[in-house]
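Hypothesis: this fold can be encoded by more than one sequence.
Test: take the structure tokens below, design a sequence, compare later.
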């Protein structure tokens, strides 16, 4: 909720109304020029679900903007490019472990890392949607990576062999055949990510307020 202040001030024998919603600087300048205050009216605005709905939509869009490229790109690398070995095993185990971390831990990480990070590069101090989106990106990445990876693995290996036999390059085969064949699984990862973002309340409240 927000507090809207309506104040009547006398300036050069004229009654002028000024509003707090016009900005603190304008409000203060109007008070400096005034001779007397004729009346003061405070009204409490807000309530309802409109603000929450709008913030939720913005948060989801910002989160998907960061998490989808990272998640899909990470899945393509792990399934199609990464060689079997300790490095791939460590990365896979870290992704599995991250998916089991409680949301309050993500909120704590966002509070001590992303909130100061955003304040350094923007004029925003404290809670912000951008810090919340970065925090939710960490929450969604394991879900998106694991779901997309399983979808890529389900594409028959004969598709790749046939494409390479017809003269297509490895990159063309990966992105035009394999990724295109897994698009239904990638869409499922998108839906699961949105559902996870909608269900996270603790981490969002710690970072976004």
């Amino acid at each position: 909720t927000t507090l809207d202040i309506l104040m009547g001030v006398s300036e050069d024998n004229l009654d002028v109304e000024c509003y707090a919603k016009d900005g603190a600087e304008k409000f203060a300048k109007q008070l400096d020029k005034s001779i007397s205050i004729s009346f003061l009216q405070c009204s409490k605005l807000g309530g309802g679900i409109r603000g929450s709905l709008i913030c939720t939509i913005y948060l989801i869009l910002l989160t998907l903007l960061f998490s989808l490229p990272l998640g899909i790109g990470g899945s393509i690398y792990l399934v199609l490019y990464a060689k079997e070995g300790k490095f791939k095993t460590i990365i896979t185990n870290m992704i599995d472990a991250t998916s089991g971390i409680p949301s309050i831990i993500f909120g704590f990480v966002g509070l001590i890392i992303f909130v100061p990070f955003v304040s350094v590069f923007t004029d925003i101090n404290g809670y912000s949607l951008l810090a919340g989106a970065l925090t939710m990106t960490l929450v969604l990445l394991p879900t998106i990576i694991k779901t997309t990876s399983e979808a890529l693995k389900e594409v028959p290996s004969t598709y790749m062999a046939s494409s390479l036999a017809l003269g297509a390059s490895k990159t063309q085969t990966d992105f035009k055949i394999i990724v295109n064949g897994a698009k239904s699984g990638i869409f499922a990862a998108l839906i699961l990510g949105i559902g996870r973002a909608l269900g996270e309340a603790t981490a969002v409240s710690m970072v976004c307020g």
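The beta strands are 2-11, 14-19, 36-45. The two ends are 12 Å apart (CA to CA).
Hypothesis status: open.
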